[in-house]
Amino acid sequence: MRALIEGTSGIDLFIHDSDHSYGWQAFEYALAWPQLSPRGILLTDDVDSSRAFFDFCTSRGVRPALLLDRRKLAGAVLKNVMV
CB of 32 within 8 A of CB of 59? Predict the structure, then answer.
């Protein structure tokens, strides 16, 4: 995955929906973030499974949006929308 993401620039939408452990989420967010286009979106499923998404947003100074329904909680962040 690293070679695929690092070999790509200008990603408009990155979706995380795999291993929801803190370490893996943090790894994927950090890997994808620099490759997002200036108005790219990072979207992630099950943000309630760990604090990785919220810690990531705090460390980058970006404002998260939460998307929820009766059984799911997802998060999204736009690359150049700061807190």
Answer: no
